[in-house]
User: Fold enoyl-CoA hydratase from Halogeometricum salsisoli.
Amino acid sequence: MTDVDVRRVTVLGAGNMGHGIAEVVAIAGYDVVMRDVNEELVSEGYESIEWSLEKLAEKDRLDESVETVLSRVDTAVELESAVSDADLVVEAAPERMELKKEIFGELDEHAPADAILASNTSSLSITEIASATSRPESVVGMHFFNPPVKMALVEVIYGSETAEETAEAANEFVESLGKTPIYVRKDVSGFVVNTVLGPYIGEPAWMVSDGEATVREADAAMVNRRGYPMGPFELSDLTGIDVGHHVREEAGRPIPPVMAEKVEAGDLGRKTGAGYYDYESGDGADYVPEDDTGDFDTLRVEARMANEAARLVGDGVATPEAIDTGVRLGLGFPEGICRRADGIGLDAILDKLETLSEETGEERFAPDDHLVELVGSGRTGKTAGGGFYDYDDADGDGPGDYRFLNYDLSEEGLLEIELDRPERMNALSTDLLGEIDDLLSSVDVEAVRCVTFEGAGDRAFSAGADIEGFADRSPTDAMDVTPAFETVEEFPRPTLAKIEGYCLGGGLELALACDLRVATEGSEFGSPEINLGLIPGGGGTQKLLRMLGETRAKELVFRGNRIDADRAEEWGLVNRAVPAAEFDDVVAEFVDDLLSGPPLALEVAKKVMNEGADASLDAALAMESQGFGLLFSTDDLREGTAAFREKRDPEFTGE
Ligand SMILES: C/C=C/C(=O)SCCNC(=O)CCNC(=O)[C@H](O)C(C)(C)COP(=O)(O)OP(=O)(O)OC[C@H]1O[C@@H](n2cnc3c(N)ncnc32)[C@H](O)[C@@H]1OP(=O)(O)O
Assistant:
């Protein structure tokens, strides 16, 4: 359950968002009432929850039975009784201000005095919604992304009178759902994610309108050259061209002519069969890498997004971390826009905006004050040691602040490393591999006694190398995956992979570079590279051969299909496959032994065993005997033998 005070939740609205939110809330263990204005809508919503839960159960992604989760979902038509004992109400009604205000007026009358009143609006002002109540301090925005069951992000938005404790409770509640909240500290139009998305869609539309680019060039360049998951026009077709048009109209912003023409012609995107691409008589978003002529000005688009991000930071709406988390989880951007801007150089971004501003006189290029300040104070990005972020490791003298990696080094010497790209199944991008390499190369080894690796989220340790990045990579770059795996393998302390979920391709190779592997029973293992026309490239072919023998290794590599954790244990691919409920305890037992073990003997054992595996038996035995001799002169040996004599646990110091 949850450690916040919320126990009973009411969701108002049984449509796409409403039933999705109710489902997520019930899965997290809360009792939830889903209310809509008539029985038909409510039962359609309920059936959708049931259908979705069954799909999750089929994919083994539900810890409880469908019936148990459903037993926590109640439905209602009457608002008063639905909210009368709710701790939290999430309103997910259609996006019309008058309707929302009416609902919040009713909530004010019927919901308990201490209830949190949240709106799932994606575009309307929280302050104005709250004005319909006599308790605006209890009203907060809680913007889930569609579909809630799949999307990890929730924006928690402050209205102008939202109390700190209301926002904090909303934040904790979102975390208790297993989702990632970001704070949007001021009630700005578009909140965080849609504010950054605006120029991604809008600027290419201006460029096409002005005859400076084609739709296909823009999409191909942003996807292939800059790694975005979808081209701006492809994305616009998917979400509906009229949606972006409406948002701009409402905000009083100029509308790119190409967008206005499409809306006027009724070509709104996929939903009408045609938009920027033709989905009925054509092949849909059929741009290909060759459409990327190299002329499309990607910097112009990214400079505008970075400018919006600077405005959000400068105005105190969100931190760079929140913005980056928002666009990664909410839009699937390959990295946060603030990180990316720091990488490009804020001076180059400012220069681009100033040039465009002078050339066109258009308001949208006016550089934001915060951006100007950052550049003026020398914070021009990563190479300068600071931009939106600080780069402590710019001088290369220690681990820094990583984008895709979280780590913690405890006083006892446990270095816990988490691969943090849950939205991409913790796929190993070049950057992520570089960060693993950097961390293990720069950490103070003397302070570490054991390392664990795990994947963020509950779906994957890692689903392999980042396939999105493949199109863009030269063969020599692509061969560059092994250094990080070698660093892991050669790290002088014992390493343990904690595997929950998919462990595939490069993810399996990372786990194999670790000394030990513990997995939950629901985990799946495989080398699916062959299905992509590839072979394992991070040591997999050779590691599997040595670990499993030719018969099993070839089955994994040639067939490319997955095996379950029990079979992985039987084959010797993992040390233990355990039920999820026992996982933490089993991992803790392994870690305790490694942390309390003699560091020098463990280091020598690791080296002798790793290097000996590839040497002749004579050479390997010579290595072992040399290591054995070496350890005889250590304090740890004296401590180990003394502890044995004195019948106590040894306390090794690594000397
Ligand atoms: C030297 C090393 C080479 C290699 O490692 S090559 C890569 C080898 N690995 C693979 O081929 C595995 C690819 N992934 C999959 O087959 C599936 O995923 C899974 C079976 C792991 C899970 O399937 P499901 O439950 O249906 O989830 P989902 O919608 O496919 O994945 C969620 C999001 O994660 C992205 N993703 C998954 N694996 C990768 C990857 N390896 N590289 C980049 N992105 C990946 C998806 O695209 C999607 O993203 P969106 O939600 O935006 O559609």
